[in-house]
Structure prediction request, 300 residues.
Amino acid sequence: MKKTMTFPKFDAELNTDCCDPYNNAELTLTLRLGFRQINPAGTTNAGTHPDAGGQPHKIIRWNPAAWSSWKARFVSSAQSFWTGKFWLINDSLSFPHNNRGVIYFPNVWCRLKLIGNEATVPGNHRTIDVVRLDPSENWFGSHATLYDSKDMDSIHKKTTSTGNKVMQRAHVHEVGHLLGLNHVDVGKPHCPASGDTNAYACYGVSDHDMQSLMGAGMQLRPEHAYPWRESLRHFALEDMSSRAQSALRSFSHARSLLGTVITSLSSVWPAKMRRHYPRTEAEMKAGTPASTVRPQRRGI
Ligand SMILES: [Zn+2]
Prediction:
């Protein structure tokens, strides 16, 4: 089964056709970005443009070669950073599949597909302006809808209490925002969700927090699987309601479904950053945790 759902920030496709005793389901989020050149005024080749903080920076005119190469690098680099990094563990008896009489419950592997369009192409999830920085400019404050040509460079953003530089490549952080993630410290007393969530403290105060990708560093963490987990809930709910229709045909099926419904309502789909193998129905019912070790003696 391949099913697609559209959400405001991305499209999502769940593929269970790839499931077998060793392979999990795949959830692919597709994000279509519409890039738009910001060029110096008129026909001049050089000018200035304000960054996120209102600070003017020197910019130069895009040419076709620089533009297409920047877009291609952005898309391939950010996609490979994010795709295939999380597995959501099936704790709701969702998506059962029958393999030679044995029921398996897959976990869900999280993938990302980025598409870099021109802003004029219809159907983009977000339009992003991009400045081409003059070679003399080393830094530009990007934000969610304004990027710069050096966003793929590693930049020193914070320093830990022990004097280590915390470096970040802005484009992968910005893709986190496009997927719906907030800065690491949003919701803490020094960065209330109702205040300016782009304030310096929101990028992490403790050494641990500032190293997060949604802080000032490059560390991808299980909580960054949030966009996949939230969209997966919709697929899991749909799976449950379609199984309800067939189960309600008999009392015993309805009883077993009731257990599934209760399990689903309390499901978490915890995120892991290593591949975990599918579990059998017996393993699920016995509460056997999903394993990173390839199981033996499965019937294929
Ligand atoms: Zn940010």
Remarks:
- The two ends are 20 Å apart (CA to CA).
- DSSP finds six helices and 15 strands in the chain.
